[in-house]
């Protein structure tokens, strides 16, 4: 018996360098899910290899601020000198479509989502050690040293905010972390408040056949 699955909003956060994007990609490769990634908007300049409309929508400060005024973000925040935000209309469409919508955002934005959409599932991806973060950020080599130091000090603060999340997943190994996230998502779909109504409807339809 298969219930009609409702849309689900999944928020993934974690400090810079924790490997969120890698875990998310591993998650998206798993079968029998209909994950959709919500592409964020940012005023940060594209890194080498990043594509507009795939990794982010890259816009100017003016464009971003005009969208804030128009109330077009589900959430937004400033992070190390740039704006980042989730376009509202796209997320609404995807959820209505029954998708499992994944946002990959920092903590301030995640708390805004929690306030606006209490049904969202908030997952914090944490590093096994702080040194692991430092090594990964340095190895990535996409930012100058002062930005890396700023990201690391931000990471310290972010770790203390993990308490506001529903789940914490330690990224000791990408496949393991993705597996645990998948288990969380399965359990969340089975929550009575999400699935009981659909189940009762199904029972009724079966009886009327
Ligand atoms: P990066 O510059 O490394 O791509 O992203 C910096 C931080 O901004 C990361 O923690 C990333 O998850 C977060 N971020 C990306 N998109 C959004 C968004 O739409 N909203 C918020 N609040 N944070 C975002």
Explain this structure:
The protein is of the alpha/beta class. The chain has a domain of 141 residues: Rossmann fold. 46% of the residues lie in helices and 20% in strands. A five-stranded parallel β-sheet has the order 2-7-1-8-9, sandwiched between helices. Strands 4-3-6-5 form a four-stranded mixed β-sheet. Helix 5 runs antiparallel to helix 6. It starts with 7 loop residues before the first strand and ends with a helix. The model has no long low-confidence stretch (mean pLDDT 92). The structure holds guanosine-5'-monophosphate. The site of guanosine-5'-monophosphate has 14 residues, from strand 5, strand 6 and helix 4.
What is the number of helical segments per DSSP (H or I, 4+ residues)?
8
CATH architecture of one domain: 3-Layer(aba) Sandwich
Strand content is 15-25%
What is the overall silhouette? globular
What compounds sit in this structure?
A: guanosine-5'-monophosphate
Q: List unreliable stretches of 5+ residues.
A: none
Mean pLDDT: 92
**How large is the radius of gyration?**
18 Å
Strand segment tally: 9
Largest sheet, spatial ordering of strands: 2-7-1-8-9
CATH class of one domain: Alpha Beta
As for the CATH topology of one domain, it is Rossmann fold
Order of helices and strands: EHEEEHEEHEHEHHEHH
